[in-house]
């Protein structure tokens, strides 16, 4: 099984979904550490309750982005992490950090990329008037929300939707989408090559 660290900033429902999925005997990854960049990230307690090493490495406690990332790198190395999953990790990483993990770091984004990069994706979708929305799991590359796509799931936009109702519908498909995508990466069935995802079965 591949050793996976999950980086979070908040409640960690996607993190929890990965932890649950990884309990299956035939799942190709195990979650070995959870790291939050905020001390009050709710997901830290959830991770501990599952018996997983959980670390708060608050960016506020470090003088520079570089110093914070060095601390995160140390924790990843100490955990023996082979794959990094960003799950609601709301902090941009330096090009150096991204490059160090290229092909081995994945992220979930709450839109059907390449539409609606960045923040407030559900507001962006409502504003654009799309009738289909969803989530994307992708390899992390230097451009924000631009890396090669591994998995996507679509949901309908319904009449009367608010950004909250839409966010809930998207979240309800994020969890299984992320668990499926991580399995593909951990098993080597989805590989990043020359800026594309190459799939095999
Ligand atoms: C999820 O909807 C995730 O897609 C989104 O934050 C939420 C985290 O929820 N990520 C981003 O917006 C990344 N820019 P969770 O903490 O319950 O998994």
Automatic annotation (TrEMBL):
Keyword annotations of the record: Purine biosynthesis, Transferase
Any one Gene Ontology molecular-function term assigned to this protein's record: phosphoribosylglycinamide formyltransferase activity
Domain Formyl transferase N-terminal: 2-182
Catalytic-site annotation from UniProt: 109 (proton donor)
GO CC term (a single one): cytosol
Similarity comment: Belongs to the GART family.
Protein's name according to its UniProt entry: Phosphoribosylglycinamide formyltransferase
């Amino acid at each position: 099984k591949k050793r996976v660290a999950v980086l979070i900033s908040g409640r960690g429902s996607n993190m929890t979904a990965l932890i649950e999925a990884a309990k299956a005997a035939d799942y190709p990854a195990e979650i070995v550490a959870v790291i939050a960049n905020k001390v009050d990230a709710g997901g830290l307690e959830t991770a501990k309750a599952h018996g997983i090493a959980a670390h708060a490495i608050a960016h506020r406690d470090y003088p520079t982005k570089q110093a914070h990332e060095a601390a995160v790198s140390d924790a990843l190395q100490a955990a023996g992490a082979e794959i990094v999953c960003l799950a609601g990790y709301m902090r941009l990483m330096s090009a150096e950090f991204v490059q160090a993990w290229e092909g081995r770091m994945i992220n979930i984004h709450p839109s059907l990329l390449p539409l609606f990069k960045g923040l407030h994706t559900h507001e962006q979708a409502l504003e654009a008037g799309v009738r289909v929305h969803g989530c994307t799991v992708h390899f992390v590359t230097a451009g924000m929300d631009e890396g090669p796509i591994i998995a996507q799931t679509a949901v309908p936009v319904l009449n009367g939707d608010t950004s909250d109702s839409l966010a809930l519908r998207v979240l309800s498909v994020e969890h299984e989408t992320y668990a499926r995508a991580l399995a593909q990466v951990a098993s080597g069935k989805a590989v990043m090559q020359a800026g594309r995802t190459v799939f095999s079965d």
